[in-house]
Amino acid sequence: MKLLDLSIILMSFGILLIIVSFFFKNSSKKVEKDVEELSISIFQETNNLKRRLKIVEEELLLEPEFQVKSKTTPNPSVQSPKVQQVMQAVQQAAQASKVAPNPSQAKPIHQIIVSQVLELNKQGLSVGDISIRSNLTEEQVRQVIANGGR
Length: 150
What we know:
This protein is an all-alpha fold and 150 residues long.
């Protein structure tokens, strides 16, 4: 008799667990759907940030006179020494870029810039426009076009 009672109790407990499991499946599907929507939104945000970063990088490449103006620290003496060193280095680099390099001391043009110049030339842009976009002198642009990127 005890064996029969135990088997009935176990069977009824199993049936009860099966019925309860039907209710928990719906919540797991909802969690899976929420996780999927979250991953899609994170993917979209990441792509938006990458596009914005690319635009900013292109603007920085196109604007050699770019300077950061800080609204939070108008007094340079309040800035940390590391920030002051970086700002001095940026100012020195900007001043060095204003001075026209001697042709014998000119640095080689990076292959990415060369391919950009050739692509802009294919698109029909003028030498002056290509010079502005690539931060090269018009003479350098003419040399790149004449050499065909070699």
